[in-house]
């Protein structure tokens, strides 16, 4: 399915209102990165590893559970020898302390901040994961399976003209999304805003929402950032800084991506092709699929295979003896 969905040699650039007539209905060549093999196993692993790098270290207090002068009563009292809180006149006096089995005691193996929080991932594996996530954005089935609303989108991958990078007002950004059929997905993200369940709502994470489209632009300092940044669920990223956390949120392939023409044309130089290495990433060549065509039945029944396969031998000797 990946090969059939992204086998088009050309992709139409969707024109916007106000474009010159010469800019309408232009096409760009589909980069090889869009036909790279989709590897959810690599994407899931790399996403899990690099998402650990943003964790904030935590630990219990060193004093927790030990802020009392409890001592053991020793033997001969017909009670356990665990340390007990001294004194009298209160329920706390005589209660066991310090142990992890005690109420008010410390935990077992108190957490420390010098845990190995971060994870190192091989550079080539991270590049393979990003390439795989980019290729998945060109497969409509994967994008729809992720929950994006792309029924009105004219083509996948979706490429718009560079005039979108000059958009500065949010009202104009909404107009652009409506022209290319992507506003349904942005509206889905807007309507999904809700209050987070659990304690996170007390910790500056009160609201949650679904992910909308990812807008990838190719001009540094483009005005498009201001136009789209206030739309709920809509994210932006420069093509030279594509991030797996944005291309495959949660480790799930198939993010709905809107490319500008300049960003789409840069993919070939950034990630290279199957024969030519990347111009930006030293020595990186796109990974090849194990099989060009995964349809085994079509391969086996093809004329090329059947012409060299020996016919079925049926020279078995039949036992005709009567018992």
Overview in brief:
Helices cover 26% and strands 8% of the residues. With 323 residues, it is α/β, with parallel strands linked by helices. It has a domain at 2-55 and 119-271: Ribosomal Protein L4, Chain: A (3-Layer(aba) Sandwich), CATH 3.40.1370.
Structure description:
- This protein has 323 residues and is an alpha/beta fold.
- Helices cover 26% and strands 8% of the residues.
- It has eleven helices and eight strands.
- The strands form two sheets. The protein has a six-stranded mixed beta sheet. The protein has a two-stranded antiparallel sheet with strand order 4-5.
- Strand 6 (214-217), helix 7 (224-228) and strand 7 form a beta-alpha-beta unit.
- Helix 2 (40-51) crosses helix 3.
- The chain is flat, with a radius of gyration of 30 Å.
- The chain starts with a helix and ends in a 17-residue tail after the last helix.
- The model is unreliable at 1-7 (pLDDT under 50).
Topology, pairings included?
Elements: H1 2-5, E1 10-14, E2 27-29, H2 40-51, H3 123-136, H4 140-145, E3 158-160, H5 170-179, H6 183-191, E4 194-195, E5 207-208, E6 214-217, H7 224-228, E7 235-238, H8 244-247, E8 257-260, H9 261-271, H10 296-300, H11 303-306
Parallel strand pairs: 1-3, 3-8, 6-7, 6-8
Antiparallel strand pairs: 1-2, 4-5
Helix pairs in contact: 2-3
């Amino acid at each position: 399915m990946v090969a059939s969905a992204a086998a088009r040699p050309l992709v139409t650039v969707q024109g916007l209102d106000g474009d010159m007539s010469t800019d309408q209905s232009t096409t760009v060549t589909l980069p090889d990165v869009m036909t790279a093999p989709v590897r959810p196993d690599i994407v899931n692993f790399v996403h899990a590893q690099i998402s650990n790098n943003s964790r904030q270290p935590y630990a219990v207090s060193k004093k927790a559970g030990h802020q009392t002068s409890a001592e053991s009563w020793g033997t001969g009292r017909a009670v356990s020898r665990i340390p007990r809180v001294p004194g009298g006149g209160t329920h706390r006096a005589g209660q066991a302390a310090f142990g992890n089995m005690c109420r008010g005691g410390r935990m077992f193996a108190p957490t420390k901040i010098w845990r190995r929080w971060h994870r190192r991932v091989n550079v080539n594996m991270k590049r393979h994961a990003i390439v795989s996530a980019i290729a998945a954005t060109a497969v409509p089935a994967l994008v729809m399976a992720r929950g994006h609303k792309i029924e009105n989108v004219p083509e996948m991958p979706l490429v718009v003209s560079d005039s979108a990078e000059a958009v500065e007002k949010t009202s104009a950004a909404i107009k652009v999304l409506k022209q290319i059929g992507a506003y349904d997905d942005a509206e889905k993200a807007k309507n999904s805003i809700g209050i987070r369940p659990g304690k996170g709502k007390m910790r500056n994470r009160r609201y949650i929402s679904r992910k909308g489209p990812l807008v990838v632009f190719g001009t540094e300092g483009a005005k498009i950032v201001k136009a789209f940044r206030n739309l709920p669920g809509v994210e932006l990223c420069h093509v030279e800084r594509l991030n797996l956390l944005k291309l495959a949120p949660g480790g799930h392939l198939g993010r709905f991506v809107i490319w500008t023409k300049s960003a789409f044309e840069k993919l070939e130089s950034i990630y290279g092709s199957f024969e030519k290495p990347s111009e930006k990433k030293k020595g990186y060549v796109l990974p090849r699929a194990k099989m060009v065509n995964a349809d085994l039945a079509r391969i086996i029944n093809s004329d090329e295979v059947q012409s060299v396969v020996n016919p079925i031998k049926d020279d078995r000797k039949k036992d005709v003896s009567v018992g």
